[in-house]
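To whoever picks this up:

The parser on our side crashed when reading a file containing two proteins. I've narrowed it down to the boundary between the first structure block and the second sequence. Both blocks are reproduced below exactly, byte for byte. First block:
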Amino acid sequence: MILEEPHKQTKQLVESDLRYLSPIKIETKVEKKYCYFEQRNIKYIDYKDPIFLIKFLNAQGKILPRRITGTLQKNQNKLNAAIKRCRQIGLLPFVTDDLR
């Protein structure tokens, strides 16, 4: 009898410690990203419109990735091609310090 009681106390102590070792679950609402081109039903991305293409560039002139913009893969490929063509004809800079 005397041996069983300390065993129960240590078991309770271990269970309570384990409860706090697991990470705390914090519910955060993650906004789902939607493709800009699918929402607006844009089929063709015009490379001759640098004002529109600047939306998808960061301040250094680099193309923003899909995980940030939320565009689909096929539209991201079209966007990349349009930005690169726009750079080739000189409407957008290749590298800059402050694009926006």
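<<boundary where parser fails>>
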Amino acid sequence: MHLCPLCNGLEERIIQCPNCKTVMEDKGKVTDYFDDYSAYMDIDMMKMYDGQLTSLEDHLCLHYFYCPSCQHQETNSIQE
């Protein structure tokens, strides 16, 4: 069984903003922001729509990171 270490609170990632070097905030899975109900949908099913073609097969969880200082946004693939 594969699980995301960030979603499950097992790890924390410190990612610096490429613009201002502030530590970015992990805002969770990218798929949670699709609509009001996407956070409650099956995770594996939502991976078919996350924008990365092999996230299901490669056991990747795409996370949204946000910089509170300069509002830079980016996604990072987290290995499950």
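After patching the parser it read the second block fine. The chain has a mean pLDDT of 94. The chain has one helix and three strands.
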